[in-house]
Amino acid sequence: MFSGIVEAKGKISLIKEFDDYLSIEISAPNGFNKNLKKGASVSVNGVCLTSKNNGSKALKFDVIEETINRTNLKQILKGDVVNLERSIKASSEIGGHLMSGHIHYTAKVSQIIDKNNTKDMKISLPKKYLDYVMEKGYIGINGCSLTVGKVHKNSFSIHLIPETLKITNLDELSKNDLVNIEIDQSTIAIVDTVKKTLATQKSR
């Protein structure tokens, strides 16, 4: 599990393509992977990946077809910047919200409004997923725990503070870029339960 508070930005240093998976290496800032153990979970752009090695400067992961197809890792290139977070411990402070690293959808950035020190973004999302997006609710974007600004007919808006722009790769996004979306699991459970309850009542 993760908290959605990005700890560092890493840079893709190597990509090897195989028949049914990618092998990637990521250069991380000094100290990020201290005491990292082989088999540990790391969030890469919000995607839960398994470390192939013990602590060293380069992070190494294998990315299977299912993950490639469901996330924006299918578009990564050498030199790209990705958001990184180590998995949380039971005693960790949850500064954002609990995230699993399981991506529901890759959405397109439809609008970016640059302000003096902040940015507003609009993200397009199909109704299938938009039903779970609530104004002032949580949403995960590229591994960042963010608060939803407004919900529109086919999209939602977010407001990015200077600190978020500084420590994540969201500042590098352009219009039409794909971002990884993780919907809050508790919201999904509540909405689906209410829908089933209402459907049952109507059928009586």
From TrEMBL:
Key word Chloroplast present: no
Lumazine-binding domain ranges (all copies): 1-97, 98-194
SUPFAM superfamilies: Riboflavin synthase domain-like (SSF63380)
E.C. number: 2.5.1.9
Lipid metabolism in keyword set: no
Signal peptide: none
Classification via Pfam families: Lum_binding
InterPro entries cross-referenced by the UniProt entry: ATP_synth_asu-like_sf (IPR023366), Lumazine-bd (IPR001783), Lumazine-bd_dom (IPR026017), Riboflavin_synthase-like_b-brl (IPR017938)
Keywords in alphabetical order: Repeat
Start-end of each Lumazine-binding repeat: 1-97, 98-194
GO molecular function: riboflavin synthase activity
GO biological process, one term: riboflavin biosynthetic process
PANTHER family with a match to the protein in the record: RIBOFLAVIN SYNTHASE, RIBOFLAVIN SYNTHASE ALPHA CHAIN
Protein name: Riboflavin synthase
Organism: SAR86 cluster bacterium
